[in-house]
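Data deposition worksheet. Section B asks for the primary sequence of the deposited chain exactly as it was used as input, without tags or linkers unless they were present during the calculation. Section C holds the resulting structure in token form. Section D is free text for depositor observations; keep each observation to a single sentence. Incomplete worksheets are returned to the depositor.
Section A, Depositor: J.P.
Section B:
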Amino acid sequence: EAVAARHCGMEIVGISCISNLAAGISPEKLSHKEVQETADKAAPMFRRLVTKTIERISENR
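Section C:
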């Protein structure tokens, strides 16, 4: 979608939350529960980031 949007002249932004950064690096297996807990902890800050980003984009239009 991002490639198609840029091809159409649209401006885009990408934001992601990495919840399993060390998957495959640690000798211990990473469980879905651990990934979910990490995402849950990051959710409030991530929500603020997305909200503020949208507000700033709107202000500059």
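Section D:
The mean pLDDT is 89.
Residues 18-59 form one domain.
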